[in-house]
Amino acid sequence: MHPFSATRPPKLALGLGLVGLIPFVSGALGLWVTPEAWRERVLEELLAYAAIVLAFMGAIHWGLAMRAGEESSQAPIQLALSVIPPLLGWVGLSLPINLALPVFFTAFATLYFADVWAVRHGLAPVWYPALRKPLSILVVLSLMVAWLAVGRVF
């Protein structure tokens, strides 16, 4: 079977994706248990990591656009999808915290559907949504938990 048509993500991709969740989960939970003097720092690091991951996710779409080729009608969409996530991360970092967190979790939730679109158009591997869905859910939930913590402690 060609790796692009496999339905289950490679174990390495899944493992690395799970490792990439550590800052999201620990940051969100850390806002609830960290001493007050450190909470602002925990939140800054969580938001910085979220912005970095959005840039990474945008780069994936840049690669998919390159794979599609200039003659593809999907390439311009993929190129737009490569620039929007890092821009949202940048905007999110400049907003007040109570607005930044919804921007981030909305961006990650929406990006999952962009990934599914890329699979439907043959630009990303069939297994990609099986990897992205649980990771996206945990990222969005972590950012929502952080948002609740911000409302409680800040």
TrEMBL record:
InterPro entries this protein is in?
Answer: DUF3429
The UniProt keyword set, sorted, is: Membrane, Transmembrane, Transmembrane helix
Bilayer-crossing residues are 12-34, 46-66, 87-114, 134-153
The reply on keyword DNA-binding is no
Annotated signal sequence is none
Specify the superkingdom.
Bacteria
Residue runs in coiled coils = none
> What is the name listed in the Swiss-Prot or TrEMBL entry for this protein?
DUF3429 domain-containing protein
What does the organism's lineage look like at the top? Bacteria, Pseudomonadati, Pseudomonadota, Gammaproteobacteria, Pseudomonadales
